[in-house]
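Team,

Forwarding the record for the chain on the shared tracking sheet. I've put the sequence and predicted structure together so nobody has to dig through attachments.
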Amino acid sequence: MMLIGMVMPRTTNPGEARGIKSVGRTFDIVECIHERGGAGVTEIADEVGLTKGTVHCHLNTLRERRYLVKDGDTYRVGLQFLGLGGKRATDQKLYRFGKPEAEELVRETGETVQIGVEEHGKGIYIYQSRSEKAVRTDSYIGTERHLHATSFGKAILAHLPERRVTEIIDRHGLPPITDRTTTNREVLFEELETIRDRGVAFDDGEQIAGIRCVAAPVLGPDDEVLGAFSLTGPTTRMSGDRFRQEIPELLKRVTRVVEINVANS
């Protein structure tokens, strides 16, 4: 029986190996600070279910290692994480060969272009470029998305083994990000089959209302999916033939170039 006021663990994944509790607590604290854009000791302690003294110990260690900074009584995530994640992203062939193609696509379309990959069942942007007139959203390099609610995520899912897709859905579910998000497993699998056939995926306000995206996968030499390119714009500009034909053809052309460069590297 759950007691009123009991603090439950932030995240647990059935079937995963047991980890070191202190390490898990450290990352709970970091994630709490990141999600809130900064937080104080009391706020963090209440969120993660630890005493303020224990939280202080974790915070002091993280500050000493430059993973957190302190602004008055508020702790924020430090740029040390940027160095680690940035190196991980730029080491990928998809980033190396995809970046110049993404920038050229931005110049050609005037919209926002992103390169995304799958990691731990979520989609993560490893590169983003936008023109001055491009619509501004809350995404940035490192943003994590549910795969089923984005065009780049669906383009990736469509080229993963069915067992892997099932594992991802079982772990993360199909939450409704907007009222247009696909939340039915059977409907999603039907859409993934269509995506494989036509070579592109669409997001019609499924992640952000009023925003449309088109994405095409990047496949490796053995047809494994490396990631995907997506192009984002407002419904006012992403409509008709431009949304359904012109942009998809541009993306397929670009991803084909990247695939050739990756295969020959």
